[in-house]
Design brief:
Oligomer: single chain
Shape: globular
Strand order of the largest sheet: 1-2-3-4-5-6
Strand content: 25-35%
Distance between the termini: 41 Å
Helix content: 25-40%
């Protein structure tokens, strides 16, 4: 499939599925003050948090937006279509604080994709425990609340 034809929503869905397969609980469009984090994930076992900004083209804007997330997550990534991610990795991407994911959509129906880590995300030295704990709790509580609702739905 041509990478130019994917939508940002498909990019987010590909990353979401990748994170779920790796043991994370994922929330889309997580509110953080006046910002919305595209994907916020919490690992079920380690409770490690990850914030991800997805973009189809403008990697500099994605990197700028992702810098804010360094306050509220253990690790922060920018996710880009594969062809762009590989080019960006050699053009001064901020590898000291933000990681880079490459997303290749292989098929859209059903969604088949390949997500790879081009630049690992270091642990954020800017994170604030109170922010991380608040978002972590929101993700895990929302998951618990949905389970409870489905148990009583019928």
């Amino acid at each position: 499939m041509s990478q130019e034809k994917i939508s940002e929503l498909q990019l987010q869905e590909a990353v979401r599925e990748y994170l779920i397969r790796h043991g994370f609980v994922v929330t889309l469009e997580m509110q953080f003050f006046s910002k919305r984090i595209d994907l916020f994930a919490v690992n079920r076992r380690s409770l490690t948090t990850i914030a991800i900004e997805t973009k189809l083209r403008n990697w500099k804007r994605a990197s700028f937006q992702a810098r804010t997330y360094l306050l509220c997550a253990d690790h922060v990534f920018v996710a880009l279509p594969s062809h762009l991610a590989h080019n960006v990795a050699t053009k001064g991407f901020d590898r000291d604080s933000i990681g880079l994911l490459a997303v290749q959509i292989l098929e859209t129906s059903p969604m088949t994709c390949d997500v790879s880590i081009i630049i690992p995300a270091p642990e954020s030295v800017y994170r604030r425990t109170d922010y991380v704990d608040r978002l972590r709790g929101a993700v895990l509580f929302a998951r618990f609340d949905k389970r409870r609702e489905s148990a009583y739905a019928g």
